[in-house]
Each structure stands twice: as C-alpha cells, then as structure tokens.
Amino acid sequence: MTDAVAQEFQTRLSYVADATERMLDQLLSERALPGETFRPAAFLGAMRYASLGGGKRLRPFLLIETARLFGIENEGVLRAGAALEMIHCYSLVHDDLPALDNDDLRRGRPTTHKAYDEATAILVGDALLTYAFDVTADPATDADPAIRAELVLALARAAGIGNMVGGQVMDLEAETSTEPHSAEDVIRLQSMKTGALLHYAVEAGAIFARADARAKAALSHYGKALGAAFQVADDILDVEADEEALGKRAGKDAGRNKATLVAALGLKAARKRRDALAQEAIAALSSFPDEKAAILKEAARFAVARKN
Amino acid sequence: MTDAVAQEFQTRLSYVADATERMLDQLLSERALPGETFRPAAFLGAMRYASLGGGKRLRPFLLIETARLFGIENEGVLRAGAALEMIHCYSLVHDDLPALDNDDLRRGRPTTHKAYDEATAILVGDALLTYAFDVTADPATDADPAIRAELVLALARAAGIGNMVGGQVMDLEAETSTEPHSAEDVIRLQSMKTGALLHYAVEAGAIFARADARAKAALSHYGKALGAAFQVADDILDVEADEEALGKRAGKDAGRNKATLVAALGLKAARKRRDALAQEAIAALSSFPDEKAAILKEAARFAVARKN
C-alpha cells in the first residue's frame, strides 16, 4: 500500500457515499412510478429516515469498485448499489425491532421503531426490501434484461432464507442458547448473516461486467474473505470500542451470549484470523493488474483497520 | 354462465390450489439452492406453516388461468404463481403482527406469531418476500430473462410502497382516525392494499404470454375491476358472515373504524357496486373468444359470490 492508494481509496469511498446518498434521495422521492398508485408522504419520510444520512455505504462501494475494475461506471451500477444499500438498511431496521435485537440506537440516532413506531418500522423494512428488487429489475439499471434477472436472483439468494435471513435466525437462536458457540458455527453463521450480502456486492459488479468464469471465481474468493474479515473485525471492535466511537452500546454482544469469533477464539486468535482473511482477500485479486485492483485491495485493509 | 362452466371453474380452482400447494412444498424444501449456505430447518417449518395448507390460492389461479387464455401452461407459470402466493402469505403474516392488526387467528389457525413467536413471524415474512423474487427471477421460471425481469418489476411495484405496503400504511392510519372515510379514499386504499396484487396476477399471465398492448389493456381492466369487486365483497362478507364461516373474528372491521366500503357507502350500495364491478370485469374480456375466457369470467362471478 502506498499513501497515494490510501488517499485515492478515501476519495472514492466518500465519492461513492455521496453518490449513493443522492441516488437513494432520488429513488425515495414522492413521485409515483408507472404502476404505482400513490406514495404516502409520511411513510416515505420514515423510509428515508431508515436509509439516508448514514453509514459508510461499504456495500455500494464494493459493487461500484468491482464494476470499475472492468471499466464500467454508469448510473445503472449506482442504482444497483443503492438497491443493495436498501437491503442492508431494511435488515438493520428489522433486526433492531423489540422482538429481535431490541436496539434503541443505530449510528448514534434513534432506531426507526423508536423514531416512529413498531408498525412503521416493520412496514419500512418491507417496503425497502421490495423496492430494492424494483430498482434492480428496472430497465434503467441495465438495458440487458439478462443482467437484471441475474442481479435479482443473486441478490434474493444472498438476502433470503439460505443466507441473510437464515443467519439472523441462527444468531437469535445462538443468543438464547447457554452453550458456548464453536468457531465453526460462528463462521458459518457470519458468512450467512453478513458475508453473503458483501459477497453479492462483488458478485454484482462482476455480473454488470459480464466477467468470465475465472474472474468471477477470483472475485467470489475475494468477496468471501473480505466479508469474513469484516465480520471478525466487527466482533473485535465490539470488544474494543467505547460507546461514542461505535454509536451503539459497546460490549453488548458479550452480555448476550452472542455468537462472536472473539468469544469462540479469544481476542488474540480473532485478530490473527482477521488479518489473515484480509491478506487472503488481497491475494485473491492477484490475477488483476495491480493498478486496477489497488482500490479493492485497499478496501480489504480498510475493512479490518476501521475504528467503527 | 352455464353449469358446465361453473363446474369446470371449480375443477380448475381445485387443480390450481393443489398444484400451487405442491409447488410451494417443493420450493420450501430443506435442500439449499446454489448460492445458499444453509436453510435452518425449524425456521423453514415456520415458513411452511405460514404458506402451506390454506387459502383458495386465488392469485395463482388468476395468473395461471390468464396464461392459459393464451395457451400457455407450464411449470414456470406454476412457479410464478407460487411466488405470488408467497407475497400474499408474507403480507398476511406481517399484517397479523401485534404492532399491526394484532390478529390471533388466520384461516381458523393460530397466526404465525402465535404458533411461533414475533421474531420468527417478522423473519418468516421477510424470507417469503425475498424468496418470491428469487423464484420469479430463476431461469426455471422462464428461459427468457426479459420475461423474468418484467415479472420481477411488476411484482415489486404491486407489492411495494406505491401499492400494497403503502395501502397497508394508509389502512393503519385510517384506523386511528376518528373521521369517517370517504368512499373515494377507501376505493384508492383498497386498490393499493389488495387490488394491486390481484392485478399483478393477471398482468403476469399476460407477460408470460407476451400479449400485445390491446390484450394487456383489456386484461388490466379486468384485473382492476376484479380486484375492486373482490375487496368490496370482503367488506360485505365481514358484516354478513358469522365467525365459523370466515375463520376470523367477524365484524372486527366495524369495531375499529376500518376503512371499508360498507361503512362509506352502506350495505345496499356496497352490494350494488360489487355486482357492477364483477360485470365490468366480465365485460372487459369481451374481445377474447368466450370459450377461452369463460373461466376468467366465472372467476369474477366467484369473487363476489364466495362465502369466505
């Protein structure tokens, strides 16, 4: 890593965050689309509350930068990134509900069910999830319907019972169990709950690019290692970080018998695993020219070095 | 209407209900699909509880019969019908939640959050909604990705903020208001909350058939009138039916200042509107040969004559 790459990474990260914010703002406007009857304004406000003004937009970033690795930069890629972010935001809104994680704060602000009410939060999640598929399937995302259909299928599969939702179910089960969780179980759970959507980000970039099987396999390897590294880093941050830095109650995972790799492996081994996974992600990109893949490699370093 | 048509309608209705049940059973099996990590078995059981063994499967019926109007009958159409039914079932599971309609019974059985718990019910809804897009976008549904992408877009738009979810939001708002609801507002709300998904059923059949613009417009008219007729009939049933016949608490709408057309128009005018809408739906199909459209016409009669 050079300072120039680290700086370009930060520039791209904030560019994508801004562009994603603008795209979400535009998509979540009051104007009804063809086939829609009416968008209730107050409820639209709640959808905007749940999705605008927050987060690093790491998932859109990975999607957009993977497409850019192949020279593809356009409005459609931004739309797919915003749709992916909607899926991420819906999952946060539903996970924060009283019946699930019962969190009052998210990114330092009241969670959606606290700022509004439970019914609104449930429906906001439903509407964001549904809209993500609308935006992805819309011809404005790509002229080629084969690309859109492939994106929808990959997104649904990453977000559904066999990955994200299934992982959330297992996470809740793990919490109510009094048994310690094996590292193997935690790794699988995390690959489902958070890894699959990060993997989709990279996969989607490759779908836009019509990447060949070899490039797709390399990127898939990168996406899986990155997703795993990101989640171990999260587990470690939860132990290390103080409340202000993280914007949510720190140490809460340990208090709940949450399935974390720090609990399963200990802090030292978890850090070692985190760093090894980041290196694995970087190595997976070795077949791409370094000047093109530098930003994605830096993203793997960032995923493990971030402080929140 | 002849007795022969009425009998064929019943035969087709129960054939489609059985075929949809089998398709849902097959789709909701434990076998993970490519890209999925693992399907947690107990949770899959809850998804099956929420979607198998109940209902008339009217939405798949309309989808399948519309495709059949153009001579199209295949596994893909059945898959799209099952996906549509998943959307319907997800909406029931979420609407029944304590924070929304707080219903304990559905089709004479405990609602999903009663049979399991609230967290499970929220996630079951999320997983069914997501899986509906997976099944629709899968190449097994149609070889042509343009058809799949168009189906996904139409389904998302019918189910999202501008229709189904938005209608549910407005329905909850209407309930907490002490003002009487105008017929105009109730009609718009119902066209969003329940009409749009019935309309999609017909639209999807036409998409599979690559119907021309004129046929699509006629079917869209049919779908809208049928959807409206179905919902007025529901409002009337709620007033008329006794608990056993309906399998849910009868008269509950009136007790809650629910936005219903019986409340807005009175029972007599509501019945008149219901019958006029059914006739409108039937008339919309006049450009199709009667022997082909007879089943869809009968469906309009059925929608208003049903007792539950």
Show the helix and strand layout.
The structure is a homodimer of 308-residue chains.
Chain A: H1 3-27, H2 41-51, H3 58-69, H4 75-95, E1 105-106, E2 109-110, H5 112-115, H6 118-137, H7 145-159, H8 164-176, H9 183-208, H10 213-240, H11 243-246, H12 252-255, H13 261-265, H14 267-284, H15 290-305
Antiparallel strand pairs in A: 1-2
Helix pairs in contact in A: 1-3, 1-4, 1-15, 2-6, 3-4, 3-9, 3-15, 4-6, 4-9, 7-9, 8-9, 9-10, 10-14, 10-15, 14-15
InterPro entries (chains A, B): Isoprenoid_synthase_dom_sf, Polyprenyl_synt, Polyprenyl_synt_CS, Prenyl_diphosphate_synthase
Protein name (chains A, B): Probable farnesyl diphosphate synthase
GO cellular component, one term (chains A, B): cytoplasm
Descriptive account of the structure:
Two copies of one chain form a homodimer. By secondary structure, chain A is mainly α. Chain A has a single domain, classed as Farnesyl Diphosphate Synthase (Orthogonal Bundle). The first copy, chain A, is 72% helix and 1% strand. Chain A has 15 helices and two strands. The first copy, chain A, has helices spanning 3-27, 41-51, 58-69, 75-95, 112-115, 118-137, 145-159, 164-176, 183-208, 213-240, 243-246, 252-255, 261-265, 267-284, 290-305, and strands at residues 105-106, 109-110. In chain A, strands 1-2 form a two-stranded antiparallel ribbon. In chain A, a hairpin with a 2-residue loop joins strand 1 (105-106) and strand 2 (109-110). In chain A, helix 1 crosses helix 15, helix 4 runs antiparallel to helix 6 and helix 9 crosses helix 10. Chain A is globular, with a radius of gyration of 19 Å. Chain A starts with a helix and ends with a helix. The mean pLDDT of chain A is 93. At the A-B interface, helix 2, helix 6, helix 7, helix 8 and helix 9 of A face helix 2, helix 6, helix 7, helix 8 and helix 9 of B. Chains A, B: InterPro entries: Isoprenoid_synthase_dom_sf, Polyprenyl_synt, Polyprenyl_synt_CS, Prenyl_diphosphate_synthase. Chains A, B: This is Probable farnesyl diphosphate synthase. Chains A, B: One of its GO terms (molecular function) is metal ion binding. Chains A, B: Belongs to the FPP/GGPP synthase family. Chains A, B: Keywords: Isoprene biosynthesis, Magnesium, Metal-binding, Transferase.
